[in-house]
C-alpha cells in the first residue's frame, strides 16, 4: 500500500495526525492510484494519519489534495513505501514468504525516484530490533506475530494479514520524525538482498537477541547485588504518581483492547457461520420450491435465492470485519505492548540512574575519609570517584532523555489512537449498518409475493 | 390457544381454509381474548385457517369479525379448545407434564358453555390412535414427538413447543368436518381424569398398538400366502399413474420440508450465537470506553450499549424464528408423514380388495366345476363363494371409500399448506426484515459520534 509521508520539517504539526484531513482524504479517495490501491488493501493503516500532502505516483496530475497550505505544492520531499506481492520461496520446512518492498521518493537518501528490494519477515524483525536498541524512549512500531500455526502459515488470509501489518509497520517508521532518519531504515530499504542477508546473520551472531538477553541478565544480577548492598529488597521504582497512573492506564488499555479484539474475531466467525447457514437454507428452499410449483413454489424459490445472495454479503462483510476492524485492533494491542517495552527501558534507565548515583555517593564518602586520613589510596579513590560521577551523570541524562521522549511519544500516540480507532469503529458501524440495510431490503422484497399467496 | 370452529354445516366451504379471511383476522387481531392468548402463543396453528366466525369469550361483544355473510351472526354453534398451563406432576422417572384442556362451546355435545379437564400426552396419543384406527383415508393430524432427550424433557422451551403442538393437534381435529363428530373426541374433551385413565389402560391392554401390530403381522402373513398361491412374487400395488405421481410428490415433499426445517433450526442457533457474541463484544467495548474517557471513551461506551441492545433483539428474533417458523415447518413434516400413513392404509385396502377378488374368482370357478359334476360339495362351495363375494365387495367398497376420502383430504391439505406455509414464511421474512432494520438503525445511530472524533 502506497503511503505518502510528508517529510518537510515544520515543527510539531509534522508527522502528527491531522484527523480531519485524514478522514476527508480517506472519504474522498480522489487520488487515482490510491483508489486502485485502496481497492486491494481495505485497511488504511494508521500511518495514513499523516497528511496526504502529495500525489502518489508520477503519472497523476499534481497535488489535488484536501489539505491546503504550505505542504501541498509539489516539489516537497516525500517517501512512499509499499510492501507487496508476497511470494512463497523454498520448500518444506525451509519455505518462507518474500515481499517486494517498493520505495518511491524524490529524496536522494532513498535513492529515488524508485527502489525495489526483496525482503522477508526476518529482515523486518532485524530492523525492528535495531531501532529498539538505538532509540530508547520511542514507541517502536510493532511487528505482526512471529510464529503461526503451521497449517495456517501459508493460507491466503494469513499472508494478506501479515503483508498488511508489515506495510503498516514500515510506513509508521517512515513517518516518524526521528525514526525515519535512521541509517538502519535506509539499509533496509536500499541494500541488495545478499548484503541484507549477510548483515542480518552478522547481527544475529554478535548483537543477537540472545546476546542482549545475556547482557540483560548481567544487568539484572548487577542490580540485585546493588540492591543487597544498598539494603533494598525490591528493585528501585519511580514514585511519580502521574507516571503510576499512566502505567495503570497502559496495562488496562492492553487488557481491554485484547478482549475487544478477541470478541471482534469471534464476531467475524459468527458472520461466517450465519452466512453458511443462510446458503444451506437457501438451497433447501429452492429444492422445496421446485417440488411445489406454481405460486407457492415460486415464492419459495425466490426466498431461496435471496438467502443465497445474503449469504455472499455476509461472507463479504465477515472479511471486511476481519481486515478493517479486527486486524487494526490487534495492531493496537501490539502497539500498546511496544509502549510497555519502552516502559521497561525507562525502568531500567531509572534503576541505573539511581544505582550509579548511590554508588557515586558512597565513593565520595569513601574519598573524603581517605583524604582526611591522608591515605596513599586517596588519589586512586579520587579517579574512581570522578569516573563514577561521570557515569552517573550520563545515566541520569539517559533517563531524562527517555522521559522527555516518552512524553512526546505519548501525545503522538494518543492522537493517532483517537484517529485510528475512531476510524476502525466507524468502519465497523458503517459496514454493519450497510449489511443490515441490504438484508432488510432483501427480505422486504419477498413479502409481496408471500402476501399474494 | 382458543380456536374458534364454525360447526354450521353448509357444503364444501365449511372447515376449509379461507386464506384471506384468515390472514385478515390474523392481522387485525381484534378479538380481545385472542389478543391476550396470541401474546402467549406466538404460533398461530394451521387450525386458524378455519374462518373466524365467532368471538372467543362470552364477555366479548358479539361477532366483530372480518368474514361477513351467513356465518357471522352470533348464535352459530361453535367450539373452542385450548391446551394450557403445563404442570409437572410426579417425581423422578415417573414424572410427566399435565395440561389443562378447556373446551368452550355453545353445543350440548360438548357440555357447554365451558368444560375443563386435565390431560397428559398419553391421552392425546390415545385419541390419535383411535382416530387412526377408525377413520381410514383421513389424514389424522400429527402428534408432536413422543420421546425427548432426558435433560431436555422439562426445559421451558420444550414444554412450550409441545403445548403449542398439542393445541394445534386438538383444534385441527375439532375443525375437521368428519373427525369432530367422533365419540372419542368427546370422550377426550369431557371425561373425568380417572375414567380417562381407565379407558386409556384398557385400550392399552386389548386394542393396544402392540396388538394391532400382531394383527398386522397376521394380515401380512395372509397376504404372503395369497401371493404365493396366486403366483405373485411381490405385493400388489395400484398402477394409477396419477397416484404414482402423488406418491413421489409426497416423498419428495417430506424430504425437502425436513431439510428446510433442519436448516431453519440451524438458523435459530446462529442467531443465538451471534447475539451472544454481540453481548460479549458490547461488554468489552464498555470496559474499553471506561478505560479511555472523554469523547473516544464515550463513543466506545455508546457502541457497547448498542451491541448489548442488539444482542437482546437477536435473542428475541431467535425465539420468534423457533416458535413461528421452525416449529410450523416441523409440524408440516409430521403432517406429511401422516399422509404417508394413510397411503399405507390405502395400499393395504387395495391389496385386500385384489386378494379377495382373486379368491372369490377362484371359488366361483371351483363352484362351477362342482355344480357341473353335480357334487354334494356344491352346496357348501356355493355358501363359501357367496361369503367370499360379500367380503370382496366390502373390501372393494372400503378401498374406494379411502380413495374418495383421500382426494377430498388432499384438496383440503393443499389449501391449508399454501396458507400455513405462506404465513410461516411471511412471518420469517417479516421478522428478518424487522430485525435487520433495527440493526441498521442502531449502528447508523452511532456514526455521528464516531465521525465527530
UniProtKB/TrEMBL annotation, chain A:
Keywords: Coiled coil. Residues 77-196 form the PX domain. GO terms for molecular function: phosphatidylinositol binding. Pfam families: PX (PF00787), Vps5 (PF09325). SUPFAM superfamilies: BAR/IMD domain-like (SSF103657), PX domain (SSF64268). CDD domains: BAR_SNX, PX_SNX1_2_like. Residues 66-77 have a biased composition (Low complexity). The keyword Disulfide bond does not apply. Transmembrane segments: none annotated. Residues 58-77 are annotated as: Disordered. It comes from the Eukaryota. Residues 378-416 form a coiled coil. GO terms for cellular component: endosome; membrane. The keyword Coiled coil applies. PANTHER family: FI18122P1, SORTING NEXIN. This is Sorting nexin 1. It comes from Rhynchospora pubera.
Automatic annotation (TrEMBL), chain B:
Keywords: Coiled coil. Residues 66-77 have a biased composition (Low complexity). Gene3D superfamilies: Arfaptin homology (AH) domain/BAR domain, Phox-like domain. InterPro entries: AH/BAR_dom_sf (IPR027267), PX_dom (IPR001683), PX_dom_sf (IPR036871), Vps5_C (IPR015404). Residues 77-196 form the PX domain. Residues 58-77 are annotated as: Disordered. This is Sorting nexin 1. The keyword Coiled coil applies. It comes from Rhynchospora pubera. It comes from the Eukaryota. Residues 378-416 form a coiled coil. GO terms for molecular function: phosphatidylinositol binding.
Amino acid at each position: 500500500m502506497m503511503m505518502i509521508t510528508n517529510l518537510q520539517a515544520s515543527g510539531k504539526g509534522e508527522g502528527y495526525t491531522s484527523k480531519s484531513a485524514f478522514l476527508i482524504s480517506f472519504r474522498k479517495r480522489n487520488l487515482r492510484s490510491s483508489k486502485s490501491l485502496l481497492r486491494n488493501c481495505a485497511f488504511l493503516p494508521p500511518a495514513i494519519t499523516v497528511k496526504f500532502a502529495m500525489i502518489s505516483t508520477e503519472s497523476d496530475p499534481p497535488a489535488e489534495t484536501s489539505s491546503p497550505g504550505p505542504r501541498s505544492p509539489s516539489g516537497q520531499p516525500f517517501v512512499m513505501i509499499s510492501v507487496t506481492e508476497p511470494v512463497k520461496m523454498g520448500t518444506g520446512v525451509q519455505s518462507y514468504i518474500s515481499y517486494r518492498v517498493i520505495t518511491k521518493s524524490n529524496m536522494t537518501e532513498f535513492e529515488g525516484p524508485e527502489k525495489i528490494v526483496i525482503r522477508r519477515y526476518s529482515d523486518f524483525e532485524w530492523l525492528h530490533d535495531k531501532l529498539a536498541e538505538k532509540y530508547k524512549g520511542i514507541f517502536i512500531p510493532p511487528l505482526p506475530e512471529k510464529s503461526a500455526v503451521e497449517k495456517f502459515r501459508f493460507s491466503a488470509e494469513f499472508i494478506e494479514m501479515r503483508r498488511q501489518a508489515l506495510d503498516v509497520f514500515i510506513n509508521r517508521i517512515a513517518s516518524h520524525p526521528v525514526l525515519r532518519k535512521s541509517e538502519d531504515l535506509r539499509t533496509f530499504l536500499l541494500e541488495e538482498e545478499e548484503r541484507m542477508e549477510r548483515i542480518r546473520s552478522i547481527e544475529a551472531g554478535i548483537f543477537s537477541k540472545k546476546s542482549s538477553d545475556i547482557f540483560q541478565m548481567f544487568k539484572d544480577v548487577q542490580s540485585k547485588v546493588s540492591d543487597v548492598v544498598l539494603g533494598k529488597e525490591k528493585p528501585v521504582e519511580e514514585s511519580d504518581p502521574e507516571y503510576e497512573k499512566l502505567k495503570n492506564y497502559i496495562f488496562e488499555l492492553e487488557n481491554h483492547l485484547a478482549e475487544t479484539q478477541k470478541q471482534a474475531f469471534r464476531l467475524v466467525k459468527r458472520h461466517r457461520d450465519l452466512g453458511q447457514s443462510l446458503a444451506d437454507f437457501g438451497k433447501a428452499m429452492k429444492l422445496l420450491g421446485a417440488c411445489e410449483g406454481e405460486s407457492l413454489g415460486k415464492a419459495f424459490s425466490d426466498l431461496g435465492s435471496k438467502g443465497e445472495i445474503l449469504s455472499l454479503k455476509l461472507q463479504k462483510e465477515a472479511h471486511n470485519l476481519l481486515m478493517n476492524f479486527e486486524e487494526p485492533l490487534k495492531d493496537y494491542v501490539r502497539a500498546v505492548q511496544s509502549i510497555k517495552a519502552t516502559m521497561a527501558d525507562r525502568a531500567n534507565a531509572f534503576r541505573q540512574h539511581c544505582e550509579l548515583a548511590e554508588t557515586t555517593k558512597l565513593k565520595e564518602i569513601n574519598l573524603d575519609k581517605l583524604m582526611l586520613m591522608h591515605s596513599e589510596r586517596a588519589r586512586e579513590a579520587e579517579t574512581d570517584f570522578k569516573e563514577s560521577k561521570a557515569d552517573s551523570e550520563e545515566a541520569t541524562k539517559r533517563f531524562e532523555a527517555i522521559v522527555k521522549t516518552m512524553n512526546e511519544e505519548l501525545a503522538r500516540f494518543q492522537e493517532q489512537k483517537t484517529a485510528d480507532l475512531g476510524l476502525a469503529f466507524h468502519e465497523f458501524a458503517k459496514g454493519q449498518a450497510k449489511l443490515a440495510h441490504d438484508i432488510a431490503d432483501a427480505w422486504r422484497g419477498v413479502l409481496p409475493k408471500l402476501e399474494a399467496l
